[in-house]
Design goal:
By secondary structure, this protein is an alpha+beta fold. The protein is built from 10 helices and 12 strands. It has a 5-stranded antiparallel beta sheet. Strand 5, helix 7 and strand 6 form a beta-alpha-beta unit. It is globular, with a radius of gyration of 24 Å. The termini are far apart. The N terminus is likely disordered.
Length: 280
Amino acid sequence: MSDLATEPRRSLLRRLGDLFTDEPTDQAELQDMLHGAAERNLIEADALNIIFGALQVTEMKVRDIMLPRKHLVAICAQDRQAVIFEQILESKHSRFPVYGDDLDDIRGVLHAKDLLALALNPKAADPSNFDIKDYIRPATVVPESKRLNVLLQEFRATRNHMAVVVDEYGQVSGAVTIEDVLEQIVGDIEDEHDIDEEGLIKQLSDTVFNVKASAPIEDFNEQFGVDFADDEFDTIGGLLLKAFGHVPDRGETITLGTLEFKVLNADSRMLRLVEVTRSS
């Protein structure tokens, strides 16, 4: 075979070799390569979003997604059986931190399913025989600064689904679940007890809030005392996408009026979570 006949084949092999030997030197280059693969239909859009979510989780910390202390539904170890049952039924949660003298005195975690026997066994349901210590499990305690990918590994290794979060002084600042972490990768996971309006805006301090992009503009305006128009977009995410002019990357910021918005999580198509700081 002549050299002219073999040259196109060599050129093709060289191009294929270059495609697989060029390695990204940073995350930005990796994301560009993944975007390119998606544009060539080598990766589906949903898969690309999950990959980007997984990459962002490695940079996020527990404080970015935790349920703040003020919103915790916790059970006092001294409460009567009837009070605890009522609290479980009203909240419809499946896991509850249990505390002693105060919320910083965490004794463990109660799984609602562990109390099912009390509803089925009349003798066990006798309040005089009830001691919550017989039902609580050890609590997993993590610092606010723990990275989400590390926490996810720990959840998988220990088979725990909830962790109590403490600040640098050892005081309880909130709680986080495995579902919270997974939502940063695959998007919102709704169960039969989820209420759309709950948990969309979480106050972290007097001036700092975490806001899901799906929060209705009307609710956002009411919370922050602002008057963003909702005639074009229904959610704060839609409003921010227009303000940015593109789908922003994690860490990008923009100021609207007296509020600064910092992107905490976004995939290739939409915003998921932002940090809102109100000027003092």
